[in-house]
Specification:
about 325 residues, alpha+beta, Arc Repressor Mutant, subunit A, BirA Bifunctional Protein, domain 2, SH3 type barrels, seven-stranded mixed sheet, five-stranded antiparallel sheet, about 30% helix, elongated
């Protein structure tokens, strides 16, 4: 790592603690001038670093900037290897990951952006991704022996992980609108988009890119088409909340991710418990039909069990639903 990255790691692990320039220089085996330059570069990046004569430098506890070092400190000790890459802006984090597939990147390659210019949701819809207010992340996955049916569970596992992460850092209760939308109260705060590539001969998944867009703070204003449905987790700044949220999502996702590898469904009850569509009338939309039905259950594959007005029951696993929240 560079001097700047090493200093940030030291600061992130010891927020509010002062370190003299001499101490940092000796610890990192660099010059005092190199320390000063690195601190100035971090300040230009937006980090609130106090510089006090005879005390040294300290990263303010209130700083809320995404960084690999800030995320890493909250990851579980047994977390798999995650290659964390934080960038200021991109068209789409899913595209960022996909463009690097052929370079040999491994499972766990993660891109997080502070802003997306052309963020996408399901069915090519635009995902509003303004600067500084959200978390926009994409994770490369390469599950072994993963069929098409199992691959769809990546999205549902992520939905449970996001809900649990939100609740772990706030006093908010998060719920799921099948299949990939996370709500706090009656407002959508997160969308999940999973894209992948299958081997035509084996029918197994070569890789999947899990994209998560999360509204952490309320932006200056949502577009007109989103005002009635979009919301955020917080209305004001919180201390180091973005790094905590990312790490909580990763910790919880990888815990449930083993469900796919082991062909277990022990996460499904959490998904079912958090769903707010069971017992509700919804509009079902798929490639070949559109209809109205009542959701009567969600099974261990997270398929909707629905009952139509004529009494017929079936499982709905591909498409989307709409419901008045």
């Amino acid at each position: 790592m560079s001097t700047k990255e090493n200093i940030l790691e030291l600061f992130e692990k010891n927020r509010g603690t002062y370190f003299s320039g001499e101490y940092i220089a000796q610890k990192l085996s660099v010059s005092r001038a190199a320390v000063w330059k690195a601190v100035k570069a971090l300040q230009r990046d937006g980090y609130a670093i106090d510089a006090v004569p005879n005390k040294g430098y300290s990263l303010a506890c209130s700083t809320d900037i995404l960084s690999p070092q800030g995320i890493q400190k909250y990851l579980n000790a047994d977390a798999p290897k995650i290659d964390i890459n934080v960038i200021p802006t991109t068209n789409s984090t899913n595209i960022e990951v996909r463009e690097k597939i052929n370079t040999g990147i491994s499972e766990g390659y993660l891109v997080i952006a502070n802003e997306q210019i052309s963020g996408r949701g399901r069915l090519g819809r635009r995902f509003f991704s303004p600067k500084d207010t959200g978390i926009y992340m994409s994770l490369l996955l390469k599950p072994s022996f993963c069929s098409g049916e199992q691959a769809t569970q990546i999205t549902t596992i992520a939905a449970v992980a996001v809900c649990e992460a939100i609740e772990s850092v706030s006093d908010q209760k998060a719920s799921i609108k099948w299949v990939n939308d996370i709500f706090v109260g009656n407002k959508k705060v997160c969308g999940i988009l999973t894209e992948g590539s299958f081997n035509l001969e084996s029918g197994q998944l070569d890789y999947a890119i899990l994209g998560i867009g999360l509204n952490v703070y309320t932006p200056n204003g949502f577009p007109d088409d989103l005002k009635q449905i979009a919301g955020s987790i917080f209305t004001s700044n919180r201390n180091d909340i973005k790094n905590r949220l990312v790490s909580e999502i990763l910790n919880r996702f990888f815990f449930y991710y083993s469900c796919i590898q082991n062909n277990s469904s022990n996460y499904a009850e959490e998904y079912r418990r958090r769903s707010f569509v069971i017992g509700k009338e919804v509009s079902l939309v798929s490639s070949d039909k559109s209809d109205t039905a009542t959701v009567i259950d969600i099974d261990n594959q997270c398929r909707l069990k629905v009952r139509y007005k004529d009494g017929k029951e079936e499982y709905f696993s591909s498409g989307e639903i709409s419901i008045k929240v």
